[in-house]
Amino acid sequence: MFLCREQELSTLNKRYQKNTFECMIIYGRRRVGKTSIINEFSKDKPTIFFSALNASAQENLEALSQVIHSYSNPNVVNAPIYPNLDSALNAITELAKKERLIFVIDEYPYLAKADASISSRLQHLIDHVWEKGNLFLILCGSSMSFMENQVLGYESPLYGRRTGQMKIQALTYKEMTAFNPQLTPEQQALVYGITGGIPHYINKLNVQDNIDEALLENLFNTSSYLYEEPENLLKQELREPAVYNSIITAIAGGASRPNEISTKVGIESAICAKYLKVLLELGILTKTTPITEKFGKKTIYRIEDNFFRFWYRFVPQNISAISSGRFPQIYEQAVKKLIPTYMGLIFEKMCRDYLLRYETFYPILLSEIGEWWGSDSKTKKEVQIDIIGTSAENDEYIIGSCKFKNEKIGVDELELLQNYAKVFGKGKKYHYYIFSKSGFTPALEERANNNEVKLIKLEDMY
What we know:
The protein is α/β, with parallel strands linked by helices and 462 residues long. It is 45% helix and 16% strand. A 5-stranded parallel beta sheet has the order 2-3-4-1-5.
């Protein structure tokens, strides 16, 4: 069953109905659902779908020849091979003269790796032949750095030839509820914290009504698909997966600054920076700095991909127990007891997404949202503010706190937030928000009734 992605499908269908040449670039991290979107869009339309191989140019030519011949002759098993790539592309041109044809090259970076001339060949065809017709060309890829630099970039032969592009993102915490509508808001939040809104992982986790059972059967199990998924992805994408694995493990273990990471991994800082850059491009890591400040000494690295974050937090340190079959006996202490702490950063992101996407009334004209940390000059202690929302027109700010705890949040949290706002010290007026998984005390609710703070429960976010 195909779920969500209505906006992407609508965009593709509107472009298809124009009946003019289209060159759509679709990219995003692996497993995010790019191919599913293309398949859903093209399922009732004339389509030649070629999934490029991580193989030689000749093997790709053979595979392309097969799908082209199969389009016209579905019963042909051993299709003749075109003498060269130009002949195969010319065949596409002839077929597109007969009807509105969708031509998909999935995993385009593989084809470009096998035949470096492919982008120039496509450029020539677009400029001199296809632009005058109604072919619908889709170039799709999972290597985001390649797609952004070698396809969309200024120096690419294809620069300026695209008619549109889509960077497919993971689903938001609210969008992914369509996969498991029977779950409670807390369960939905946990599924988001585990899968990061990646449709493929949501399906593979296969939660029915008990997340613990799903984790034990479909992740903390050596025969399960998800058990080796992060390592398999690193092997598929990178030439030195062991080094990248060590870097991600170091960050999962608490290292966040470049020097901390390089020291823990045991490589020079300059070399480590190159590996970090690759992981950023893949969307596995993110680097963050306090809002209102520029990237610099305060910049830290975190695992952006929730599935990688969850896996590296709980799998490596428990491999022996998982491999020996003892893990169900220690799951309660090794995972379940620690999940509320793990969910802290996840819940903060959910709350920021709520303010950006789903809040219906803003006390300010919201410009940017992020987090902030710094030192209190009076107490000499580090201050962490979960949410800072900036105004587009004045020096008013939203200041927010996010608590994924099994207890009601009281007045002390508001007072702490007010003190933190003084440390932040950049605004003339602050608007306070407190998010809570488990609700609020009557005393804090009374303060909310006096408009001192806006209180949002987890269930209010769905």
